[in-house]
Amino acid sequence: MPDGFDREHLRGLVTVTQTPRLEIRNLVRAFEGRRVVDDVSLTIMPGQVTCLLGPSGCGKSTTLRMIAGVEMQDSGEIWADGQLVCDTVFRVPPERRGIGLMFQDFALFPHLTVAKNVAFGLSGSQEDKRARVGELLERVDMARHAESYPHQLSGGEQQRVALARALAPQPRIMLMDEPFSGLDNRLRDGIRDQTLTLLKEEDTAVLLVTHEPEEAMRMGDEIALMRNGKIVQQGAPYNVYTRPVDRATVSFFSDANVVRATVNGALANTAFGRFLAPGVADGTDVDIVFRPQHVRIDFDRQGSGPLPTPSDGVAARGVVVRARFLGHESLVEFRMEHDGSLVKATVPNVFLPAAGKVMWLTIPRSRCFVFPASRG
Ligand SMILES: Nc1ncnc2c1ncn2[C@@H]1O[C@H](COP(=O)(O)OP(=O)(O)OP(=O)(O)O)[C@@H](O)[C@H]1O
């Protein structure tokens, strides 16, 4: 062994490679000649929550149904713990895939008690089943309702029973399709957090389908953003939010302001200053995209004009069109004097300038994204 190295030191450097709990490779499914799932690949580790996020109709549920085994793919493979589960020739039946399902219309069996609902998918001795049901009902805080029937429970309570039922057979993988959308906001946060804790404790790999960015950011260790059957971006919520791949991705997560400009000498000239557009040919249009919370309003100098620092770019004048209080922030809409375009800005707390007031706006360079111009 070379000088300066010992076994302990080396051990610390070795990366332990874990087998993915769920891996899908190049899944494709077409209906009537249209690919609704188009070459989708995903890897989920034990204890990891990945949110498949995208607008309605982009192919999220079809992807989930193929993994569950209730829909067949046209091509591609599904693997669990390093074992092939399904390709176009070989197919493990749905009930033997070790996959738990939790959908929005989770329908408990109405004629069975809570305890019997949870015990439904369990095998083993009566004693073992009773113990597992008891443990899970404790953990979802429903033990006192063990002998109740579903119709005697609130929506949130039913959802907790559904969660216990889905977890009871200790699935390796949990597929969840908009599981919380039937709940009102007050209940939803608590049940989401409880669900997440339980799934992590059981080391389950989770694929959760949602069309709500906020839910995906709250629940997901990773977000896989889907559009028109394809995964357009994948990564930790922070990375997807702060390094979006295109204008549509920015707009999907939040309101977005767009300033269009034509590139000249790798620079896009705007009323907010010049932006670098490396590698973009002269004469090409680009969109400078920025979120309302990153617009800076010059409160002090108001109409008299600020002296921007270089990182803030150039200040442009906007006339207040409308200002609304949204609770924890205010949304102010401006009509820009230089071209009549609209720019939205959010400001913490209460800031409600009168319509017609002129203010100067800047956008920090680091908060802007430059994309090829889109028709969207
Ligand atoms: N069995 C089917 N036959 C024909 N078209 C289908 C079938 N199943 C799904 N589709 C179509 O495939 C597309 C994707 O549907 P899917 O349910 O996967 O989308 P989604 O992203 O889950 O949408 P939502 O969030 O609205 O549920 C839709 O245009 C849908 O109409």
TrEMBL record:
Record-annotated ABC transporter domain positions: 22-253
Keywords noted in UniProt: ATP-binding, Cell membrane, Ion transport, Iron, Iron transport, Membrane, Nucleotide-binding, Transport
InterPro entries cross-referenced by the UniProt entry: AAA+_ATPase (IPR003593), ABC_SmlMolc_Importer (IPR050093), ABC_transporter-like_ATP-bd (IPR003439), ABC_transporter-like_CS (IPR017871), ABC_transpr_FbpC (IPR015853), Mo/tungstate-bd_C_term_dom (IPR008995), P-loop_NTPase (IPR027417), Transp-assoc_OB_typ2 (IPR013611)
Keyword ATP-binding: yes
GO MF terms, alphabetically ordered: ATP binding
SMART domains: AAA
Source domain of life: Bacteria
Keyword Cell division: no
Coiled coil: none
PANTHER family: SPERMIDINE/PUTRESCINE IMPORT ATP-BINDING PROTEIN POTA, SPERMIDINE_PUTRESCINE IMPORT ATP-BINDING PROTEIN POTA
Protein name: ABC transporter ATP-binding protein
Source organism of the structure: Seohaeicola nanhaiensis
